[in-house]
Amino acid sequence: MDEEMLSMEKNKVWDFIELPEKEKQSITCKWIFKRKRDGKYKARLVARGFMQKEEVDYTETFSPVISVPSLRLVLVLILQENLHSYVMDVKTAFLSGDLDEVVYMSQPQGYDDGTGKVCKLNKSLDGLKQAPRQWFHKFQQFMNKVKFKQSTSDPCIFIRKEKCRKIIICLYVDD
């Protein structure tokens, strides 16, 4: 749990504030505990997104996912052109997405400082309805910044060509 909280602090996920009287209610959060294959345990803080109200706490939630035909095509390209392929996982992906809406959340259980303050979320958090969409936008901005071109046929494919090198990134958001 401490590791997760350090990650939240490092990513500046929230600021502690007094809940403005005229503002909406804060949502709550909970800890999810998972045992990994290596026997270690992982704690993840998850916002209770089901408490969010549409048009108040969020507007858009859609995030694209690579289509199966596009993925097959990329796999065929890898084989035909004898390319290298890698699978990666971004462990704290949702913590990097910037929020467009103002969302307040109660302090996490076990880490409440007793002041009655709430967390004003600056970044997306697992469980928020808009989390996948916000992360996709952040990823898309980064890919543009590092000169990748987004495919016109599938928004989850990014390509960069340099002299005799080709890099193809396929994005799949699984949460």
UniProtKB/TrEMBL annotation:
Reverse transcriptase Ty1/copia-type domain: residues covered: 11-175
GO BP annotation list: DNA biosynthetic process
Top-rank taxon, per record: Eukaryota
Pfam family, one: RVT_2
Name the UniProt record assigns to this protein: Retrovirus-related Pol polyprotein from transposon TNT 1-94
Protein's organism: Araneus ventricosus (Orbweaver spider)
